[in-house]
Amino acid sequence: MEKYIGRENEEIKMPYTGGKYVDEYKEGGEEKNFLDIDGYCYGFVETKRNKNGRNTIRIERIDESYKNCESIDNVLVVWVAANRHGKQKIVGWYKNATVYRQFQYKLISDNDYNITCRANDCFLLPLNERTFEVPVATVKDSFNRFGFGQSNIWYAQEESAENYVKEVIKYIDNYNGERINVVINDEDLDATIDIKNKAVDEVLNEALGIFQNTDSIKYENIMYSLKLCNFILKTDPSNKDAIKLRCFIVSNLLRIKKSIDLFEEYNRKYNDNDYLIYFQLGILYYYDEQMDKAVENLNKSVILNPDYIDSYILLSAVYSYKEDYANALKYYKICIEKDDKILEAYYQIAWIQYYINKNTNEALKYIDKILSIEENNADALYFKAEILYLEGRKNDALSIIEQYLKEDPQNSWFVELKNQIFFMRLEKCILDYLVFGTLYNLKLLYCS
Questions:
Q1: Rounded to a whole number, what is the largest CA-CA distance in the chain?
Q2: Rounded to the nearest 5 degrees, what angle is found at the Cα of 47, between the Cα atoms of 43 and 53?
Q3: pLDDT reading at 21 higher than 60
Q4: Sign of the alpha-carbon torsion through 222, 224, 230, 235
Q5: How many CB atoms lie within 10 A of CB 238?
Q6: What is the helix (H) or strand (E) element at residue 24, kind and residue range?
Q7: Torsional sign, CA 434, 437, 443, 446
Q8: Could you tell me if 74 and 62 are in contact, meaning their C-beta atoms sit under 8 angstroms apart?
Q9: Strands (E), 83-200
């Protein structure tokens, strides 16, 4: 990838390599590793998996004194990716990063992460600067081999790698070129632009037009819209429309806490009962994991505009996060009453009914409603197959899986579930044989 701020913002079709999951689902956990969220980047590196789930990062290999700790600070993390020729190259780094043993989760990034770093200490190289090669360990060079093996993590602790590590550190310390990851500081939020021979209304309409244009979501366009607002407020500090637009722009730049302050200040000053203001505050408090505040603002949004369905959807998500599943169900059902094509609502109701309420029939009923709207919906088919398998209806589960795999034979989720069911069957056959054999031998032993 080029920017690592989300695949939807990539202008160049990458990565060239990314493993089966990336190839199949067109997404990867690392694709937002250089996205500045409230002054921090949240890095993801996939660890190996075993029968108990994902492995951890062995932070004691970074510093053995952290053997019983869950995280370690002040780590230099070097990010590496294969180029189009399959060569591993340094693409960037985090300085003074925190590395976690276990995966963490943050709502706004909507992804697991196991490394964090202040955005100011994150450097993503331009494509033409990604030239520093990283070795891959091979059996042929086993005498002094070092570098990446099968794991996505290399701790670089081998004695034979000492000189190479020094070269990497020297390269990073001496790098004075461009970094292409966007880092937003407080002064950037106050930046302005000099506009001449334009009326305030004309400038405001231009700023609003850029912000509302879905093709203008690039950072540069959003920042230009912000600068236009700041220009207006420099000449007319009480311009209500510019103040409101600035609130929304800053929230789009993922300055969560700053946006909350701006919106709350706007409400205190104007109190114009705009349902979108309260909805936006609901989102911001949700991302800031202040759930009671999120509920409070979303309820105000619902009162002001009972037909705005997004408020109900977000309320459902907030209550699910709070594990208040009764209210989550209530609002998911309201969503369906207002729009019976919202598939996510059916899916979440099915999940709650099965895993929380232990009501298999209700869960299957809502999954079937999804399939009546979209008969090949992969999520619904997988969930239905999973439920049937867990309920002991393995043949019915296999029937769904095999039918789906006719259309998408490489789908790893369905293949994995099929293998799981198959090996469970095989394991049961072996177990039956062993139990029978044991009883038979006991009987013989008893007879003798």
A1: 110
A2: 120
A3: no
A4: negative
A5: 8
A6: helix 19-25
A7: negative
A8: no
A9: 88-106, 111-118, 122-124
Per DSSP, the residues of 308-375 read -HHHHHHHHHHHHHTT-HHHHHHHHHHHHHH-TT-HHHHHHHHHIIIIIS--HHHHHHHHHHHHHH-T
Q: Is 105 helix (H, G, I), strand (E, B) or coil?
A: strand
pTM of the model: 0.83
Partnered with residue 82 across adjacent β-strands are: 88
Segment 335-355, tens digit of pLDDT = 999 999 999 999 999 999 999
Determine how β-strand 40-43 pairs with β-strand 88-106. unpaired
CA–CA gap between residue 2 and residue 140 (Å, rounded)? 33
Q: For 192, list phi and psi in degrees, rounded to 5.
A: -130, -175
Summary count for the chain: helices (H), strands (E): 16, 7
- The residues with which 118 forms a beta bridge, in sequence order, are 40
Could you tell me where the DSSP H helices lie in 289-324? 291-304, 309-321
Orientation angle between helical segments 412-447 and 394-407, nearest 10 degrees? 150
Cβ–Cβ < 8 Å for 157, 61: yes
Enter the tokens of residue 310: 């997004």
> What residue has token string 């250089």?
34
In angstroms, rounded to a whole number, what is the distance separating the alpha carbons of residues 39 and 33? 13
Give Cα separations from 286 to 321, 322, 323, 427 (angstroms): 9, 11, 14, 45
Query: First vs last Cα of the chain: how many Å apart?
Result: 72
pLDDT digits (tens, 9 = 90+) for 35-68: 999 999 999 998 876 556 667 899 999 999 999 9
In the three-class reduction of DSSP (H, G, I as helix; E, B as strand; rest coil), residue 41 is classed as strand
Quick count: other Cβ atoms within 10 Å of Cβ 255? 22
d(CA 155, CA 327): 46
